[in-house]
Design a protein that fits this description.
Helix content is 33%, strand content 17%. It has helices at 2-16, 69-76, 112-121, 134-139, 157-163, 172-185, 235-254, 259-262, 274-282, 333-344, 379-397, 406-409, 423-430, 455-475, and strands at 58-64, 86-87, 94-100, 105-111, 126-131, 190-197, 203-210, 222-227, 264-269, 350-359, 363-366, 402-405, 434-440. The chain folds into two domains: 52-139, Metallocarboxypeptidase-like (Alpha-Beta Plaits, 2-Layer Sandwich); 180-475, Zn peptidases (Aminopeptidase). It is α/β, with parallel strands linked by helices. The protein starts with a helix and ends with a helix. It has 14 helices and 13 strands. The structure holds zinc ion (ZN). Zinc ion binds next to loops.
Length: 478
């Protein structure tokens, strides 16, 4: 009954908001799959979700910098004046995407002109083309269809979610409708809390998931916090957080007395950066920061994950750069709101676990990010838990996730400001005994532009990881 109400309400909302969403016919037998997207250039520009021309002539390449010190220095910018993510040295402009420390490779987004100059400057540079047609790759991450969705009224929330909602990435309006209807369907266990307003006056929302128990009081339970979307373009981290909520609801329906549900509270923030996320849907799919004004006119955005007040240092990146930290700690609206929420609810929640979802590179990062010289407490167990998470993922999907200290991933050993002020360090130091950052799929073939067909596989492998994480926390004596 409730589920029918949920679906009916959701349909109404979809229509009212005229959200363009549709049912994508899937070949359930998994036989041949042609891309259902035509080439974006064959479609009237007015039909494009955003201006795709901005990525024309851009590609993503993977450069191997092993055995080439000058190239490494140039790319990773260990010299003073460099800008970590958007490097305009010698008129060669590029944006850093991802790095593989084991393979010593760096993925960058670069235009044809700059690539030519880069090759001229480093004639022996070894690189491989990863994304040849960036506009097309961007285009293919948006929902395909524009036909309104029509569902039978007897669909329940589960078939609804599996058949439709998680088949595509969703914009913030659709996500918010889905969440508030989930709350309407499960009012006893799900409460959406508006914890503050962003620079652009969007709500920052926490999904509080807690199953009432007669045996253990709410504030006696350990709390697990899971956040997604701190970086706007990392859409898979948003869909995965939503998927985890959905899997817990499913677990509640089938096994409400499960220990994971009755003995733990969960706080989810699926869209930690609502302004930035919205911007990736309307203007620039590859935007990373939030959207607040900086001291430099026409430069917007602070890297939220560089704005926490724990070993905060001002970034060497300028205000227009992708890793700009702001001028002082907690200048980013989102981290400041989250910090006051944590202060206000300090008595209600005993936060024990924290997982911050990002992409890409398939890595499990443990504290600290700001320095490789700072030893995390209880390192042996911290590592054991990280390897357990990696194993759970491997057993679920066969995918490999590397375990490494966050400081290495962030190059804090090369440029000290790069790993400072992270959410991981802040939560680990102040709140959560066990804390990790998970960088989700893939290892670079699609990078930030992971196609939507991976939403469910990634959701399932992370759910396996979270189940393991929760059982570890439940058995932890602390
Ligand atoms: Zn990220």
């Amino acid at each position: 009954m409730k589920r029918t109400v949920f679906v009916a309400l959701f349909l109404l909302l979809l229509r009212a908001a005229s959200v363009q969403i549709s049912f994508k016919v899937q070949d359930i037998f998994g036989t041949c799959t042609l891309s259902q997207y035509g080439h974006y250039s064959s479609i009237d520009a007015i039909e494009h979700p955003i201006d795709l021309k901005q990525y024309e002539d851009n590609c993503v390449i993977r450069i191997s910098y092993a055995n080439d010190e000058p190239l490494k220095e140039f790319l990773l910018g260990s010299t003073s004046k460099s800008k970590s993510n958007s490097n305009s040295n010698s008129n060669i402009t590029y944006k850093k995407w991802g790095k593989n420390n084991n393979q010593q490779t760096l993925d960058i987004q670069i235009d044809a002109n700059s690539l030519g100059k880069l090759v001229e400057r480093f004639p022996t540079m070894v690189y491989k083309m990863v994304i040849k047609d960036l506009s097309q790759a961007v285009y293919e991450t948006f929902p395909l269809s524009k036909v309104p969705l029509i569902l039978e009224s007897n669909n329940d929330i589960h078939s609804f979610s599996e058949e439709v909602f998680f088949k595509e990435y969703r914009d913030i309006a659709t996500i918010n409708s889905w969440l508030s209807l989930l709350q309407a369907t499960y009012p006893d266990i799900i409460k959406i809390e508006d914890i503050g307003e962003t620079f652009e006056h969007k709500k920052l929302q926490v999904v509080h998931f807690s199953v009432p128990s007669s045996e253990i009081e709410h504030r006696e339970k350990k709390t697990v916090v899971i956040t997604g979307g701190i970086h706007a373009r990392e859409w898979i981290s948003v869909s995965t957080t939503l998927y985890l909520i959905y899997k817990l609801v499913q677990l509640y329906d089938t096994w409400p007395e499960s220990k994971m549900l009755t003995n733990l509270n969960f706080l989810f923030i699926p869209v930690f950066n609502p302004d930035g996320y919205e911007y990736t849907w309307t203007t620039d799919r590859l935007w990373r920061k939030n959207r607040q004004q900086t001291p430099v006119p026409k430069c917007f955005g602070i890297d939220i994950d560089h704005s926490y007040d724990y070993h905060w240092t001002k970034s060497s990146d300028w205000a227009c750069g992708e890793e700009y930290s702001g001028e002082s700690p907690f200048e980013a609206f989102e981290s400041r709101i989250w910090n006051s929420y944590l202060d206000e609810t300090n008595q209600q929640h005993k936060i024990s676990g924290y997982i911050d979802l990002h992409s890409y590179s398939q890595e499990i990062l443990y504290p600290y990010a700001y320095s490789c010289n700072q030893q995390p407490r209880d390192e042996e167990n911290l590592l054991e838990l990280a390897y357990g998470i990696a194993r759970s993922i491997r057993l679920q999907s066969g995918e490999d996730y590397q375990v490494l200290p966050a400081c290495i991933d962030k190059d804090a050993d090369l440029l000290p400001d790069l790993g400072s002020g992270t959410s991981l360090d802040f939560m680990y130091h102040n709140k959560a005994y066990w804390a990790y950052q998970l960088k989700l799929r893939d290892t670079g073939d699609h990078g930030f532009l992971l196609p939507s067909k991976y939403i469910e596989p990634v959701g399932n492998e992370v759910y396996a990881a979270i189940k393991y994480f929760c059982s570890f926390i439940l058995s932890d004596e602390r």
